[in-house]
Amino acid sequence: MAGDDGNKTNKDDDIRVDTNSPYYLHASDYPRQMHVNDVLTDENYGDWAQEMKNFLFAKNKMGFVDGTIKTPRENSPEYMTWMRCDAMIKGWLTTAMEKTIRSSVKYANTAAEIWADLEERFGKESAPRAYELKQTLTMTQQDGNSISAYYTKMQGLWDEIQSVSPIPRCSCGKCTCDLGKRLNEAKEKERLYEFLMGLDGVFSTIRTQILASKPTPTLGTAYHLVSEDEQQRVISTTRKPTPEAAAFQSFSQNRRAVPNDLIAQRNKGTMKDTRHNNGEETEQCTFCGKNGHNREGCFKKIGYPEWWPGKGKKEKGRPKAAWVDAESSPIPGLTSEQYQKLIKHFSNERNNTTDGMTSTANMAGNIDKDETWIVDTGVTEHMTGNDILLEDKVGTNGETPVVIPNGDYIPVKGRGSSMLPNGIKIAKVLYIPKFKCNLLSVSRLTKDLHCALTFFPDFFVAQDLRTRSLIGAGQCDGGLYRMGSVARKALTTTLDVFMWHKRLGHASEANFIKTSECFDLLHCDVWGSYRTPSLSGARYFLTIVDDFSRAVWVFLIKHKYEASSHLVNFCNMVKTQFGKDVKRIRSDNGGEFTSGSMTDFYAQRGIILETTCSHTPQQNGVVERKHRHLLEMARSLKFEASLPTKFWGECVMTAAYIIDRLPSKVIGFKTPFEILFKQKPSYEHMKVFGCLAYVRNTETKGDKFELRGRPGVFVGYPLGKKGYSVYDLSENKIITSRDVRFVEQIFPFAAAETQRNEDKGDGEEFFDKLCDDDISPDDIGEENLGGDDTEVEADNDVGQNENHLITEPEVVTETEPEVQSAIPQDYGQREKRVRAQPRRFEDFVVNLPPSIDPTHAAHEQESSTVHPIANHISYKNFSKKHKDFLSAIGSNDEPKHFRQAAQHEKWREAMQKEIRALEENGTWTLEELPDGKRAIDSKWVYKIKYKPDGEIERYKARLVAKGFTQLEGIDFHDTFAPVAKLVTVRTLLTIATKRSWIIHQLDVNNAFLHGDLDEEVYMKIPEGFANANETRVCRLRKSLYGLRQASRNWYQKFTAALTSLNFKQTHADADLFIYEKDEVFIAALIYVDDVVITGNSAAKIQETKDFLNKKFSIKDLGPLKYFLGIEVARTPDGMVLSQRKYTLDILSDSGMLGCKPSSFPMEQNLQLDHCDGSPQVEASRYRRLIGRLLYLQATRPDIAYAVNMLSQFVSDPRQKHMEAATRVLRYLKGTPGQGIFIPKEGGTKLVAYCDSDWLGCAFTRRSRTGYLVLLGGTPISWKTKKQTLVSRSSAEAEYRAMANAVSEILWLRWLLQVLRVAPTEATPIFCDNQAARHIANNPVFHERTKHVEMDCYFVRERVESGEIQPMCVHTKDQIADAFTKALGTDRLQGLLGKLGIRNLHAPT
Predict the structure, then answer these.
(1) Closest Cα to residue 998, out of 911, 932, 901, 1095?
(2) Which pLDDT tens digit goes with each residue over 332-362?
(3) Between helices 1179-1192 and 1215-1230, what is the axis angle to 10°?
(4) Record's superkingdom (predicted)?
(5) CATH H superfamily, domain 1242-1369
(6) Domain spans of the chain?
(7) Angle between helices 111-122 and 45-58 (to 10 degrees)
(8) Within 10 A of 85 (CB to CB), how many other CB atoms are there?
């Protein structure tokens, strides 16, 4: 009843939540929350821990991490609540960590364990970190920042130092001496000094006042005083009148013209309104006795500001007209002396000018022609009537006429450029013959020259906007400002030597040396940072130039702050070695030269530091130009020797060494070395930088047959050692040796680059050839710095025949990629001894590898490799007809260039036939190239077409347009055209084989010519067919091979033709066309101009051929033999698809035909990453190889995993990546004819295998998906690919792989349905992960699948619909393993049969 409800009590009202309990969690709390500003790293534990403590204390959870809230017993009612809170805190802590740190604590049981572990690792005192912080603190300067920003930076460093190295505190509790208080006061005072030391020089006054105060102010007080001083300076700066305005300020005798805000600042609010109605001031200063201010604001007491006229001098008698400061001028950038000279010059000019000149209102017709230029603000362009003043004059047609003030139009007859009297060239000057004057447009002049013009009553000046330097001037003559009235000689009187130095492009300061002794003045600067570190890891170098001797010293440094210590050491060296003290140092304002520690050093040594003004590097021009000199010479050394960029440090050091020994005009054609050491330098020991050098091998360990000399590259002269620096090519390090033998005509890296470009040889041969070639000392000469030489006679077979003295190797650096042979084969080689088999073996059968077969001379042998390709490929399993075909496609060479083809009659005829076909088809018309259009180029491509029996069907020369030069939107619009998928090709051939269908191949003659061309495209006349004086080009009327739109046009044309023949285009693959009528079934698959046609009706196939031949002119190639580089071999039990020829071409082009074969493509457990420490290799060579291997996967699923792994590094390939790719080539060498086997038996059941490698990627930790789909035992689809997301469990990774495989299966089932092989039952998909199968079959495991829910539903729906059936397979039987990991020989060979792989070319 209604009345009973009011008597019931709600139990929820009795529940009270204790928000003060440490177990309380708010509804918004969750583990992945981020509660600190920055995540924990190796360097910010102090700040991070403080922020985390504040947060945990605010949440009342600090007891969980410091251990005060103990873990309850398991039977306690609070146990689960405690566990829930602890898990929440663990989530907060790990979320706020860097990934690497998080992974190290993820297995901790409680939050307290995590906290203790972090405190143990990062919370303890760290001496290196304390040292780094102290060093940073010492070098911290204000550097123009605000006081607030500077203090905040210092405070952060102080706090971090305190956390790393805290001040000791009394722990006994009985301290009576106040030691702790005194320590804090000492620390506070130390911070005050550090704060004041880093202030900019403008605060020197307030800094002196603070230090002079007794007692010494606290840090906070000092900060407050400096901040107030900064604020006053800001106010003064913003209110201070500009020099231009100051020039026109008027001052009276009795009243100072002071800005109102500065008056307020001066009187600091104490000035009262004491004026009477008549406006006179009544307040009188009690300090100076004058009116208008009070004692607190009296300038005589507190000091005169910069803007105060005369700075305290009496103002009586000063006129009220414009007043100019004695130390400055009204023209910014000019001194008062220069300004006075200008006034004097123009006063003289004015006195010499006739004052009775007629006033000129319209200048265009009343002034006689002369060479002066009149500056006019009323014209928009420069104009002249004197064509003698014009350079580069061109006539104009249709130029807009000039309108003069009376409204008349005057025509313009030309335009050009002209040179002003001050040497400045102006452009776009209009030539108007009717004008009798030369007009300069102010608007055009200021824009083109980026200058400002300032006009005075008697003259004007033009100044550069950036530097304020004077670039022109002129006087006012007859009311007109004339540029031409100022002669160059007159201008010279107003400019100092420094101005002429700037005009002359900062020329050499040969005449500006003002020092009289060495080390009176040092010029210093730091260059860098450079993106590539040197061999020693340096990214900068410090340059020191002595002003008197011009000697240069260079120091390679890793960090800029290291320059300070090098400069100090250099000054000490000068004192010790030369007995001189450095007097002055000139540098920029870098912190490495102006830090507090360096300032103290200068003060101790009495050195004057001269720094440049901001944005004025020319003030340090000596060292700036020396940098340019060093870099130009270093580049020359590097380019000549073709050294890698990492040798830039050695190049710069060697350049400095050479420059010190070259005579210079600046120092009277003496060398810096001669001036510095009072003796002429020696040049006998100098060698060509980067040349080949041999160093004694000291690691023979007593073995007489070890190499005596180690090849290297000469890289400089070491400091403090009488020897040479040589880069050891075998050990990849720099060693120093006293005795080195040089071959100055050979540069190893240059020769390696040349050979790599010519034949793309294997880089591993370099060291072997250097050490094995017989080079006679008599041929190459010998260079020693000292010691006796002992010639060693040896047999020619020994190899190296050189003598070296023992030397001590010097340590050094990182590895360098091996380069290819640097010594020509015919350079200095002795004649090879002909080896023959001993006679005692004549009656024996001796089978040796060809390279060591002594029965024949080496040059008579057909092969000189230990592992000839003939040992790994056989043709015994093929019929004679097929052998002829294989022999034909491999024996005929196809030309690569026009010049090669033009030498053979067959190819010349083929090109002529192609041109005739193009002309008969109306492909182009010859026309003159219109303006605004450009003609693309073309090239010839040559191909040999074979008949099924191997005979040459025809020589095909194809003219291809270079469409990559076309511009989108101009030369083409739509370009997309589908091509047949290789999966479709394999599926169609599998069904045709199993159904015993006819399979034929067609080739369309000039396929692309049948496409209509809508765009206006022009092409140059093909190579070899243009007349000598021909200027016309080809206007393309129809599509041509190579055009960006050619494929699309041809595809549309061919599709329309097949559709008219009642073929239907399938939706599963747009390039597959089928014909169905009753029992007749025909399928046609097109890949550009290659067509595969198959079906069960020979009559319909022939009818289709006839129709296409009539429509397009096709070539019937008969039964399918060779399609897209895939060889088709029929066997009694089926068909084999292989890429034997393509594989051999890859091996041949890579120089690997003679390599030792491998039984597996990739080493097991090989973890490839970016390999930043490994040397780089030629990127184009690596990319070309990987691209070819990617296409080789069309019939080689066994290399899919290896190629996918290697393709990740095409952007930046390294030596390790190339070595792994070489392993793949070695594997291909052993199995060049391996391919896919399509059995006739076995039915058409679709079976799939899927697998994943959880966290398989070493550097992204993403898993790898691999799957394989078999149709009747034939592999038709496979893939290995890295997943797009990181999987949190192996079940997730396996399930994602299953989802990808299911997607491919659904498409294949659709394709099979189109080909009349519709599956009647669910496709089994074998997976070796139990959790993944359970997720697919049952709607459970929500915790495991909530983050992959979409894939979960996708797969489960297909299982429920009966299309997919997940099945269990043991790991050892999982075929998809070959697509997720590298397998060894036994495992790989065991899976090849299951993969459907067969090698018909395997030797018996």
Answers:
(1) 1095
(2) 766 666 777 777 777 665 555 544 444 444 4
(3) 40
(4) Eukaryota
(5) Ribonuclease H-like superfamily/Ribonuclease H (3.30.420.10)
(6) 20-124, 128-166+177-237, 256-327, 336-496, 521-677, 692-798, 895-1124, 1242-1369
(7) 150
(8) 23
